[in-house]
């Protein structure tokens, strides 16, 4: 019997294979899984495919790839959507727990997003990201560049370069490390006017989706980050977490200390039960909206450059990241 986490991946791999109208290979499956929030490389996909083959759920067609068998389709039909609904928030909570960055010693792991770009676009991407950083559309000036030949745990497709950016869920880890219980609540699109946040025009609950909300909004091309940089008016990605209202004062101290480590982006700390920019907080809870770490990448996409981004991807030692 395999572990529940492996079973979830097996079901998701079968879903990807079943959605293709022809045999599909491990590399394409891995790319699609990453789009759906499953951080898994090509080698791991091959391992899981062998399990599915042994169970009779998939069949291999030489080098062309796999298709799902009748037995596999029946198994897939019976798989509960609940296997996926809780996966995103569970993965986020795991990364929050693994965040151990110390604001005083300025060392430890932060959560990062991973964005893959074509090597030929690298110079243009860096120019846009520098512009976004200078305009304040990035929560940390530190990034890490990973080449496909680098000895790294992060999978980089052939012909691509990966860019790690600090993820806003890092703030949840910082709050937890400082003794403040935290609950990721919403990801959404925040409208700005004259550089000031006005309202969330759309939000998705982290607990009610099988795909990361920020990924969904990026796929919809919902932002206008470049407009914000140029005119102060537009739409940026943001999310909100909730903490006990009694911890609001301590949270403000933590967020101020974070700014000294170049970790900014937190907008405000709300009062108990206060709705912030249209996003509600529960009774006895204070909301903390934060601009997300991939707004600079969203600006890149707005220029027409193709980017594959995996928000809330993994943890990384902050000292291994360099300023843009």
Task: Tell me what you see in this structure.
With 324 residues, the chain is of the alpha+beta class. It folds into two domains: 4-85, Arc Repressor Mutant, subunit A (Orthogonal Bundle), CATH 1.10.10.10; 95-323, Alpha-Beta Plaits (2-Layer Sandwich). The protein is built from twelve helices and eleven strands. The protein has helices spanning 4-18, 26-35, 42-55, 70-78, 82-85, 87-98, 122-134, 170-177, 213-219, 225-231, 248-259, 295-302, and strands at 58-60, 66-68, 109-118, 142-147, 160-166, 183-193, 196-205, 234-244, 285-291, 307-317, 322-323. The strands form three sheets. The chain has a five-stranded antiparallel β-sheet. The protein has a four-stranded antiparallel β-sheet with strand order 7-6-8-9. It has a two-stranded antiparallel ribbon with strand order 1-2. A hairpin with a 5-residue loop joins strand 1 (58-60) and strand 2 (66-68). Helix 6 packs across helix 8 and helix 7 (122-134) packs across helix 12. The protein is globular and about 60 Å long.
